[in-house]
Amino acid sequence: MTIDRNVNSEPTVTDSDFFDLTSPPLRRAPRVRIKSPRVLDGEVVEVHIGPTVFEAVARDLRDGDLSSQIHWSTTGVSLVDKDFGGSLGVGAKLEVTLPPGEQTVTARVKDSDGMIGLDSVAVAVCPPVIEKLESDTEEDETGSGGGG
Predict the structure, then answer these.
(1) 68: left (phi over 0), alpha (psi -120 to 50) or beta
(2) Which residue of 33, 81, 116, 134 has the smallest Cβ count within 10 Å?
(3) Which domains does the chain have, with CATH numbers?
(4) Residue 69 burial (CB count, 10 A)
(5) Inter-CA distances, 145 with 133, 134, 136, 140, Å
(6) pLDDT tens by residue, 1-49
(7) CB count, 10 Å around CB of 13?
């Protein structure tokens, strides 16, 4: 910072003394937020076996919208394959069928500066629940097939 002093004047400070125009702008990692399935912090999402839709947004101060570049992956323990994990695909929205078990699904994106942003959701994939219809139970008990 430069301060000029004259005998007859007040000290003066210039704008360039406050802003270092030669330093690079502040770098921040892109922000990623999983929108679907929606969860509160620390909660586990329970889904049944079958297609599950994952959707996220990714934004960066310098690069703008990076949602189409989101890389989806999963890690965890499957009831079928023991250790399960790997890439699920790329994009803002993805529909996948996960094996039964507990896993963590991560949305990850890298900006042009190489900074990485991510968000994760814990997922418990449950086998489908099969319920016997009440009308089938009544019919079995009476032995009538409706031929009365």
Answers:
(1) alpha
(2) 134
(3) 27-125 (2.60.40.10)
(4) 17
(5) 15, 15, 10, 8
(6) 444 555 555 555 454 545 555 655 677 899 999 999 887 666 888 888 8
(7) 11
